[in-house]
Amino acid sequence: MHLPWMSRSDRRRWKAARTLPDLGHLAAAWWEGSMRHLPGHRAGHRPHPLLAYHTAVLAAANRTGFLAVAAQAGLADGTTQQRAAVQGFATDPVLIRRLVDAAENAGLKIVLNDYLDAQPGDGITAVNVFGAALSLDDIKAMWPRLPHAVEAVAPALQITLTDPEFGPSDLLWDTLATATTPTPPAPAPAPKILCRECSCTYRDTCADGCSGVQDQDDGRCEACIDPGVVIDWSKEVDDEPTKCQLCGARFYGFSDYCTTACEIADLPDDEQQQRASAAARTGDTTPDSPWTACPF
């Protein structure tokens, strides 16, 4: 089996493509010039020179999942007027929604079809006709002798976006770039990890350098590890801090005291003595014991 006018290396790559994203990556390489052949076109066929400034956008759109192999730039030279237009295929519902929403917001003309909609005479006249529904025979002609490509493309939604005005314009290309640029994931919220000594939470808005508990082996925040770090809770803006019932220090947590030391210090004398005796028996006299002074 040979695809007409195609090099062996390109033929192997196109025959190996099984999905719409596979085809999109190869089409992107064609728009960029690293792939010499595009199925359904003559040998050495290249994008029109007027599209030279837009091939990067078209390549990026193909890699995102919008298989765009037909496009034209806007033109108005006194004898010929044409609208900027692009026609392609997509199956990802999220991408389709983004394309349609972006096109509607930009005021572009939109045509959505599938191969069952094919009727003669459909489409938007923009010198070349864009937006006509492509039949199964049309798709087979676009991907000759590539049954896997036809199987991937045929069920896809056919999407045509066209500038409403004739002549050069960046409206279509800017809209296409916006719609097909992957949205970065939202940053993960700061973990709500309580310091085992003062019960503060991780808060990245602390102005004094406190970074809360970030997988520290001893489970304490900087203010408890180093009493020289004084947290200025007055600079905090989220939620209301709790006030320590003994020393009045403001902290974020669910305890009534900013530290275990304050909690013990507020106990009646006999209970303090019992706790002290228990700590002495267990040898709990390390710097991070409950008897550490309140860092505030």
Walk me through what this model shows.
The chain has two domains: 8-180, no CATH class; 190-296, no CATH class. Helix 3 runs parallel beside helix 7 (171-180). It is built from ten helices and nine strands. Strand 2 (75-76) and strand 3 (81-90) form a beta hairpin. By secondary structure, it is an alpha+beta fold. 32% of the residues lie in helices and 15% in strands. The longest helix has 14 residues, at 93-106.
Looking at this protein, list some descriptive labels:
296 residues, alpha+beta, 2 domains, five-stranded antiparallel beta sheet, 10 helices, 15% strand, elongated
Brief sketch in words of this structure:
With 296 residues, the chain is an alpha+beta fold. Helices cover 32% and strands 15% of the residues.
Count of DSSP helices? 10
Instruction: Report how far the terminal alpha carbons are from each other.
Output: 80 Å
Q: What is the chain-wise order of helices and strands?
A: HHHEEEHEEEHHEHHEEHH
Q: Which term fits the overall shape?
A: elongated
Mean pLDDT: 77
Major beta sheet summary: 5 strands, antiparallel
Could you tell me the strand content as a percent range?
5-15%
Low-confidence stretches: 201-211, 233-237, 285-296
Give the tally of β-strands.
Answer: 9
Number of domains: 2
- Class computed from helices, strands and strand pairing: alpha+beta
Write the layout of secondary structure elements.
Elements: H1 8-16, H2 20-32, H3 55-64, E1 67-72, E2 75-76, E3 81-90, H4 93-106, E4 109-113, E5 124-126, E6 128-130, H5 136-142, H6 147-153, E7 157-166, H7 171-180, H8 222-225, E8 242-243, E9 250-251, H9 260-265, H10 269-282
Antiparallel strand pairs: 1-3, 2-3, 3-7, 4-7, 5-6, 8-9
Helix pairs in contact: 2-3, 3-7, 4-7
